[in-house]
Amino acid sequence: MRTPGAGAAWLLLALLAACGRSAPPPAAEEARQCLASLDRAGVRYALEAAPASSGSCAVATAVRVSAASLDWNQPGIVSCRFALELDAFARETIEPAASAHFGERVVVLRHFGTYSCRRESGGGHRWSQHASGNAIDIAGFALADGTVISVERDWRPAGPKRDFLRDVAHRACARFSVVLTPDSDAEHYNHIHLDAGPYRLCGR
Q1: Pairing mode, if any, of strands 178-180 and 201-203?
Q2: Which residue has the higher pLDDT, 132 or 21?
Q3: Residue 37 forms beta bridges with which residues?
């Protein structure tokens, strides 16, 4: 388990050594503060070498997250700031929604992927927010009692699973820039896409 503050301190020392100066530049200080916030929140992560140093596939303070309030079914590379947003989303949205709809805790967030150096699907020319580590594709959740909730299977049939998923997607629109669901288009039939990009779209 990560020692609180270890990630932030390690990065700050590395940046100071590289820059040869007594105080970190603004970007380094922002990174240090973000990593310190992850440590305080108890997010489980490891610093990740930047997938690209510049250009459309660069990730600001890349971290490989394995748990952010909820365990993830697989680690994912995201920007530090997006990791903080996902942690807050889990605590403030997903967990209360699960309690309201099932009287149970969510223990695992299942996702299909985070970072991917690619353009938007559908032949678009814009770079995907996945390329900058600011997106995640949520496939479903697992509850403490063993119940599994799948976006692909449970988005449409009436019942508490559908109501939970739609509640989560609805609330996500208040926190993330873009929310895409199976109601958005055929490409999102099996997941909820969340990103923190410059455009706004609530496709629930």
Answers
A1: parallel
A2: 132
A3: none
